[in-house]
Specification:
This protein has about 160 residues and is mainly α. The chain is built from six helices and no strands.
Amino acid sequence: MTDVSTIVEALRRQALNALEELFVEIHNMMIEPYEPMFLTLEEISAVGASTPIGPGATCLAAQVEHTAFYIDVLLAGTEGADWEGSWSITSVSDAEWTALKARLRTSYDAMYRTIAERAADAWDEDFIELVLSLIGHNGFHLGQIREGMAVLRASNL
């Protein structure tokens, strides 16, 4: 019979691999080598990040802001967060785009550390839900950003 700490360590390892694959580097779990978040964002200019992707749609900078906001809110356990406000960015300058990508990196690093350092006996149902939510939500927004890139490329932006 496998003990709980062994299961938690396997879950931790796979969760970190999944998040690392979504943001940093490929572990051949789910995406192609050119698709992690930080590599993807380096391909996008501030002008591209400020371009709404379709009628009534947000820009990619708003997607990045919302992604960082989501990570920060979940890690902090913030009640009553301004979810609508997390979509308020409509354009960014070069400096703002650089700062926004750095903010996302800081949020990612905090998320990674939180999961990596959490004691095995503290992996309760709420924490497991948080980890799974982070994987799913970040994967969804990476997909949204990559789809937005396809629109930008078709528009030569």
